[in-house]
Every structure is written in structure tokens, then in C-alpha cells.
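Structure, all two chains, one model.
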Amino acid sequence: MIPPYLLQEMAQLTGEHFVLVLVSIAIAVAAGLPLGIFLTRRAEWRTPLLGFANVMQTIPSLALFGFLIPIPLIGGIGKRSAIVALVLYALLPILRNTLAGILGVDAAVRESAIAMGMTGRQLLWEVELPLAAPTILAGVRIATVTTIGTATIAAAIGGGGLGVFIFRGIASVDTTQILAGAIPAALLALLSDGGFSWIERRVSVT
Amino acid sequence: MNAALEFRQVSYRIGGNVILDNLSFRIEPGRTLVLLGRSGSGKTTALKMLNGLLFPTSGQVLVESRATTDWDLIQLRRSIGYVIQEVGLFPHFTIGENVGLVPRLQGWPPQRIAARVAELLAQVGLDPAQFLDRYPRQLSGGQRQRVGVARALAAEPTLLLFDEPFGALDPVTRVELQDQFLELRDRLQKTSIFVTHDVREAVRLGTEIALLHRGRLEELTTPAEFLNSSGPEARAFLSAL
């Protein structure tokens, strides 16, 4: 079914796509998780920071990739701009779920933890984060699955990945090429979704 | 004799509302003081001043002759057992881990924690072999509240605080837990503060009763004196008997 000349490129672009998503999600988690924890402590920062993350989500992805091209340091043509855009998109669900997960911890449980003499750090690591873990993980899961889809647009600014097939297929009206990009991307999304659901089941205790 | 704890002209205001109004009293070591009052009388607020969850707007709360503002709060809280109505057990910890929490925070060696946890569970009427590895959601309300009491006692606290601990239980379970409270009270002789709006519970469990009304201390009496009190708020409560 699959033309042999496509196979090797498919493997290569799927790998590129995977790395693009992995790096973006890793950065988004590394930024979004501490930022979300910070927001649970500083209510006055919630509106501006969540507002920023919300606005990022509303920018059409193709436009956001385009905006980044002329910006020095973080922009330009290539993978770097692609990752910056993907991180901006992935930030909101991670940030929002971290905040919601921690704020959702039962007030009586938090009060007992404080009343029993837990330090702020112990409260966070032993009570808040474990109890918020399923919610936070759900945020990372949504972010990952949407990023796998959005990352196909990265090819428009030279970011590589499975989008290369799709854009080339559209340009040359070649359905085979479009499918060679779309099918692996869909499979990647399904696989990671399944993987997260497995982890979520292991993490949730209540 | 030194008072175990003392309120000195304590007031607490939020915005324009006076929650506690010039509250002064002291408790001798080993006594059980019941803070009795209607909803909104300030009894829970007063309780939370003792473990530094709240601080007076004016006046001082002294625990072992030291103002709560001068205590290292972490140490103060670890030396005080706290039991609340919602229990507040950690849902992701086993019963054993819940009970052993403060000893662990205090750095006790694991064998000593294990022995202490088993001893306490037996004391509150739960078979350690059966309950140690269960999670709070697998227990009934009464069993959870027993675990809450065991957890409060774990690190040999000098002071015990109870905030309507039996309020959400069915009447039969409540009486069982009150009996157990009395047994522990007489055996351990630990200074305890017990908040309730149930006059029957107050008379049964307290060695002293402090009646709060609108943030003021109406009277501080023994249960026997309370039953004969002629104060209007006391009469209102007694008519509910």
C-alpha cells in the first residue's frame, strides 16, 4: 500500500515530529507547573497570567507561526520558532490544570496539614501535588494531544515534522502524501492519549 | 499552678465584624474546657488561635506561658493535637501513614512510629492488623473520626483541640465516641479544648464549660454549675436539653 519511496521519509519525519512535541511539552511543563504553583500562592497574578495564556490560545496557529518569523532570538525560520509557538499553546492547559488541581484540594485536608505542623514545602510535596496529580496530568495529556496536531503546521515555517508531507501533498494535490503525514500524526496522538490514560489510572488514588 | 493556656483580652475583627470581643480566661493543665455556643459565637475562631491558624487582632493567646506570636509555629502545631469535624484525613495516605504523620515529621525512627501507630489504633478501638493499610475512603464516618483522634494523639501532644469532632456522626456512633473520649480524658489527663454547640455533649465531656455568645464569654463554670445557671444564654441552651 505505502509506496516504498515514502517509507524512509515517513520514519524520519515521524521521528522529527515526535522530538518536536516532546521538547515543546517538556518546556511547557517545566514552565507551566512552577508557574501554576506560584499562582496558587499569589491570587493577584492569576488574571494577568491566565489572560496571557488564554490570548495565546486564541491566535490562529498558522498566524502565530508567521508572527514569530521576524522576531529575533526566539523567532526566525526553523525548529526554534516552531517550538516557541508550540510551548505557548501547550502552556494554558498545563497552567490551568495545575492551578485547578491544587486549589481543588479539600480545604479540611489542607487545614489539617497546616494544623499538624507541615511546612509550606511539605504541604506542597506531600499533600497538594499528590492530590492534584490526576488533574495536572490531564492537563499535560490535553496539551500533548493538541500539540501533536498543531505541530504539523510547524512545517510552514521550516520546523520539519509530519507537516512536511501534508504541505507538500496540498501543493502537489497528492492525497498519498497528505495521508503519509496525517495518518502517523493521528496514530501518534492516539498512542500518547492511551499512554497518558494508563499513567493516570496508576497515579489516581482517590 | 501555671495555666496551660490563657486568653488575655483577646479580640478578633474582620472588616467591621467583631468575632471575638475581649475574651479572657485560663485553663489549668489536665482540664477539659468545652467552648459552647451557637453558630457564629466565635468558638471555632477562639480554638484556631491556639494553634496559630489565626491570631488576635488585639490581646494575647498564651500556650505554656508563651504568646502564640512568639512561638515557632511549626513546633507549636506539632505539639498540639487537632481533630476537626471533616476529619481531614489525607486520602492518599493509608490509615497507618495518617496516624504516623506528625511523628514522622518530628523525625521519629520508623520502628518507634510503627509501634506507636499500632498502640494508638488499638486504643481507639480499631484493630491495627485490619486497618493499618486501608485508605480513609474505605472506612465509615465513625471509624474515620477514631483515626482522627488517634492521629491527634500520635506525637504525645501537650494540648488537644477538638472542633465539633462528632457533629456529623449518627447519634449512636456519637455516644460511642463520647464514651471513648471520656475514657481517654480520664486516662491521659491531657489539657483539651472541645468546641461544640451541643449542650448535652458539653455537660457530658467538659470539666469546665465556657459559654460564648456573640464573641463574648458569658460564663465559665463547671458542668454542675452550668446546669443551675440563670444567665439568659445559658437558659436558652438548657431549654434545649
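The mean pLDDT of chain B is 92.
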